[in-house]
Amino acid sequence: MTVTFYRKGSAAFVTLDNPPVNAIGLSVRQGLSKALDWIAEEDDLTRVILSGAGRMFAAGADAREFDGPAQPPHLPDIISRIETCAIPWVAVITGVALGGGCELALGCRVRIMSPKAQIGLPEVTLGVIPGAGGTQRLPRVIGMAKAVRMISSGRPISAVDAERFGLIEGIADDPMEYARHLDLGTLELSIPPCDMPPPTLHQQALADARTMAARKMAHQRAPQVAIDLVEASAMHPLDVGLAQERAAFLDLRQGDQARALRHVFFAERGARAPADLVAAPADLSHVAVVGGGMMGSGIAYALLGAGLDVTLIEADADGAARAQSNVDRIMAASEARGLTTPDDVAERQARLQITQDYADAAHAGLAIEAAFESMDVKASVFADLSKVMPENAILATNTSYLDLDAIAACVPDPSRVIGLHFFAPAHIMKLLEIVRGAQTSDRAMATGYALAKRLRKVPVPAGVCDGFIGNRILARYREAADTVLMDGATPWEIDEAMVAFGYAMGPYEAQDLSGLDIAFAQRRRQDATRDPARRYIPIADRMVELGKLGRKTGAGWYRYPGGAGKVDDPIVADLAIEEAHFAGITRRDFEPSEICDRLLCAMVNEAADLLDQGIAASASDIDLVMVHGYGFPRWRGGLMHWAQVHGLDRIVASINRYAKEDALAWQLSPTLEDAARSGGFHLTKA
Ligand code: T1G
Predict the structure, then answer these.
(1) 560-573 burial, b if ≥16 CB within 10 A, otherwise e?
(2) What tens digit of pLDDT does each residue of 14-69 get?
(3) Which residue, 306, 311, 268, is CA-closest to 291?
(4) How far is the CA of 424 from the centre of ligand 1 (A)?
(5) Which of 219, 271, 520, 565 is the most exposed place for a label (fewest CB within 10 A)?
(6) What span, in angstroms and rounded, lies between the C-alpha atoms of 106 and 109?
(7) Cα–Cα distance for residue pair 445/394, rounded to 1 Å
(8) Domains along the chain with CATH numbers
(9) How many CA atoms lie within 13 A of 665 on its CB side?
(10) Whose Cα sits closest to atom 27 in ligand 1?
């Protein structure tokens, strides 16, 4: 039974009991319908108390049902029956009441929350809108301005704010007791939303919400549709608004954007240690970090934020001072944004030890090396770590490009070496590539996953290759972009095309942010092994030779006069023309659609090779890497989900067409060809 109900005296108790999050699926709706039928037959009831078993009230409708047809009893009908029930219902909210959970509570006369509980309507984050009355009842209960902000942002609010907004009757440490003893007068005087007047129109709040949604959720339909429906709540009686809302919800939930966002939502939750990885992880209570630069200090802060003790090792006093100031800067920024209090900062600082002595790491269960990207430096660090740390401690490298197996060879027991590839800024970016070397043990892998869980990161396993999953796809993306640049486009035309596709910024603006020297060093590392027959585009090298490294030198692919916004730089356009001339290329114009097609097909093909070579375990893993590490638009579901929606056969046809120009760069991946034939990459793990 996913809904239980019983009475005690004049109170009826209805409990949602559908672990793990009381998702309101068909069985819950059926259970609520039965409870309503039972209540209608009972005498002398004065209240119905609705609560959630376990750690929350309800996470919302069961999003797994959205791919299929809506099945009765429908949630809006259940809620209307609660709202018009002769016996007043009281919602006791613990944990969270989200989406349909919040709407269920809105159908109740009164809502009580526990102090740490949260309530909200996050539907737009799944590409849909509140489809069970949220856009119509919430504005009636708390006013249009607050309601439209909650609904269009999808952000839940605290119990304190809910009380301040008038969304709940009160906050109680024991909300169930509060509900049982709520006096009858309060209950009988409470007015259900269906008897409330339509909300007052608040044009400014609607306009602000539209502007914010257009900026923060660009290209996404759901937030704008939700705002329109909130506006409509002032124009129509409740039943008309509810009908409009329902139609809009059913339309959105079958759409590409909702399917894509649901795919990412469930892929994130599927990103966990494989069931057959049974080894016990190392103890994580004390972690050493070697290197306090941008990455090392970010990693150290992430560890401190997860409550771990951190020993941050630097080579000398200057390094140690720099590390301290890097960590201090992150802590200050976090406090300034209200994410931490001065007490939090003091408590975290107390758990941080910055030292030059490796012996201080002697009791750590895990060390994460985040030193300079040089094999000599890493070899020396791992040799030192191996000497001082317990034999069963796990040694991880944060390297982006170097060969993990070569690093592992620097220690007597390579099975304890693993790659933990964080993304800058390490305390903010959720992606963590867990790289398994040839000899990496299950215990090391289990430690990587356990760390990801503690840090609330999205773990993606990767095999050893140049760039693992994300950076390898990025290298191909950039190569395809540089080819289009050489053959006739400008960096800004290419960036504009990818921004129109949904990226927050294109490949050239992104390089200006990270610095052109990083990819330059990477290309130099590949000089010795690069296929001389493969077309090589030298424009980016020329940029570095000219000292145009990006924002950090005031100019890169763009100029940044006064450090402000980017400005197209004709010198760069001329550089491309000059290099094309030297290479005897007749440049031509590129339509944005062709630019997008070339760059996206290049990435899909490279990603298919990663699956083919066992570097990536599944297409959904690649989607998580691209969304969480490389700015691929989440509302497109990630690279491989997009490819399937776009049409794998279309992508194969494009690649075959491009191969006629350059067979070496456009070698069709066998996995992509098979997927096009068989209808898909089998997006989740096999
Ligand atoms: N539907 C189905 N499964 C869900 C689910 C949902 N809404 N929410 C969570 N799960 C599963 C999840 O996949 C995982 O499964 C397990 O529960 C634990 O989740 C009509 C249309 C509530 C804050 O958007 O934000 O209501 O991997 O790991 O970290 O208007 O889950 O264990 O098999 O995330 O403690 C709106 C989505 C739905 C909230 C808990 N609601 N959920 O976080 O656990 S649409 C949402 C969350 C809707 C109505 C509309 C979080 C959480 P498994 P978890 P957590």
Answers:
(1) beeeeebeebeebb
(2) 999 999 999 999 999 999 999 999 999 999 999 999 999 999 999 999 999 999 99
(3) 311
(4) 28
(5) 565
(6) 7
(7) 9
(8) 3-254 (3.90.226.10), 286-462 (3.40.50.720), 470-678 (1.10.1040.50)
(9) 25
(10) 269
Q: In Å, how far from its chain's centre is CA 181?
A: 42
Question: Are the beta carbons of 144 and 206 closer than 8 angstroms?
Answer: yes
Q: Is 123 a catalytic residue?
A: yes
20 alpha carbon – ligand 1 mean position (Å): 9
Q: How far apart are CA 505 and CA 495, in angstroms?
A: 7
Q: Which pLDDT score, from 0 to 100, does residue 685 have? A: 55
The catalytically annotated residue of 41, 65, 123, 591 is: 123
For residue 641, give the H/E element and its range: helix 639-646
Q: Ligand 1 pocket: which residues have CB below 6 Å?
A: 20-21, 23, 59-64, 75, 96, 98-100, 103, 122-123, 125-126, 128, 130-132, 134, 266, 269
Q: Can you tell me the distance from the alpha carbon of 383 to that of 387, in angstroms, rounded to the nearest whole number?
A: 6
Q: Residue 235 and residue 258: Cα distance in Å, rounded?
A: 27
Which tens digits make up the pLDDT trace of 527-542?
999 999 999 999 999 9
Q: How far apart are CA 2 and CA 125, in angstroms?
A: 26
Residues (pLDDT < 70) of the chain are: 683-686
3-state secondary structure 436-451: CCCCCCHHHHHHHHHH
pLDDT, residue 683, reads 57
3-state secondary structure of 558: strand
Distances (CA, A) of 96 to 52, 121, 169, 392, 682: 9, 11, 16, 40, 33
Residue 238's SS3 state is helix
Contact assessment for residue 50 and residue 87, using Cβ atoms and an 8 Å cutoff: no
What's the CA gap between 394 and 414, in Å, rounded?
10
At what angle are helices 470-487 and 507-514 packed, to 10 degrees?
Answer: 120
Q: pTM to 2 decimals?
A: 0.95
Predicted local confidence at residue 518, as pLDDT: 87
Tell which one of 18, 21, 151 to mutate to probe ligand 1, the residue whose CB is within 8 A of the most ligand atoms. 21
